[in-house]
Write the structure tokens for this entry.
Amino acid sequence: MKRPPVLPAASSDSSVPSAPSVPAAYAISPAVTLNPFAARALHDAEDVAFGPRRLRESVPVLPQRFRKCRTS
């Protein structure tokens, strides 16, 4: 992705003060912002894809497992 150009500072004769310019080396990459969202989307997609199989395999075992815990 192409970074936006750094805008030059306003001339000193301007009556409106300008914000300090940030060098392009310190600009934040869009990947820093989008990476957590992409990771969360991938995690949610994995839950949707593999959740039903895990439930089918785990639900019949759960009562037996809890029965053992109560008797111990």
